[in-house]
Amino acid sequence: MLSESDILLTATDLVKEYTRPGAAPSKIRVVDQVSFHIRRGETLGLVGESGSGKSTVARMLLRLIEPTAGSIRFANHDLLAAKPHELRALRRRMQIVFQDPYAALNPRMRVQEILAEPFAIHKQQPEQGIPVRLAEMLATVGLDASALNRYPHEFSGGQRQRINIARALALRPEFLILDEPVSALDVSVGAQVINLLRDLQRAHNLTYLFISHSMPLVRYLCDHVAVLQRGKLVELGPSLDVCEHPREPYTQDLIAATPHLPA
Asked: If pLDDT is split at 50, 70 and 90, which confidence band does 1 have?
């Protein structure tokens, strides 16, 4: 049986509704009573086709948008009840890597400014000093310190995503949301980024929520998988069980729609 200390994040009955404008306004429910938990040091895959509610769930977990109903507990804290100063402290422990490595980096800022931004926002000074920490962050994701003086357009898509990952790790978080982090990259570069994420998880005991529409990627990277269909959680279990013996026709369709990863 799991104890509270084993679980880093729990979402319970999450609901998100939007109001459809018009003469007779109506509610659109894009996430409908979704519940799951993520154990420390593990990866939960959140899968479904475009429009299934995956990114909406992710943004609610970080309180970038507010749930209509439900509860979220992170590291034994009630995230929805957290006051602004408490939420600020909790956000240092949870970060997100976005899908598009091109849009996620400010093209007018050098890499050193991009990577230093989290320290300025959270008013934190690394023990070893900013320059040393920035070089360390780049080394962690396989880039040289010479990248610090360059602009995002001078890098390939895979390198930009590595910079995004380095920035997300700046404040040494426990939990990363990976929102389709390789869907904008070609297959070989994406595979390198996925392997980097696995290595970082093992080295730093990170916990991941991995959002994807690719069941083969989820099987490779994730311990458990949650399947969303039109905002509803339709299947949840160990990734091997769900990928090899899916119960729901929708899950079977997702598996059939994406090619298998090469061995």
From this structure: low
CA angle 145, 97, 43 (to 5 degrees): 110
Q: CB–CB of 163/39 below 8 Å? A: no
Q: Which pLDDT score, from 0 to 100, does residue 99 have?
A: 85
- The angle that helices 157-168 and 111-121 make with each other, rounded to 10 degrees, is 20
Structure token digits, residue 213:
């529409």
Contacts of residue 1, defined as CB under 8 A and 6 or more positions apart, other chains included, come to none
**Confidence at 215, pLDDT banded by 50, 70, 90:** confident
Rounded to an integer, what distance in angstroms lies between the CA atom of residue 202 and that of residue 215? 22
CA angle at residue 124 from 59 to 10, to 5 degrees? 30
Model-level pTM?
Answer: 0.91
Decide if pLDDT at 123 tops 90: no
Maximum alpha-carbon separation in the chain: 60
Quote the CA–CA distance of 135 and 115 in Å, as a whole number: 10
Residue 261, φ and ψ in degrees, nearest 5: -70, 145
Residues in the chain, overall count: 263
56 sits in which H/E element: helix 54-61
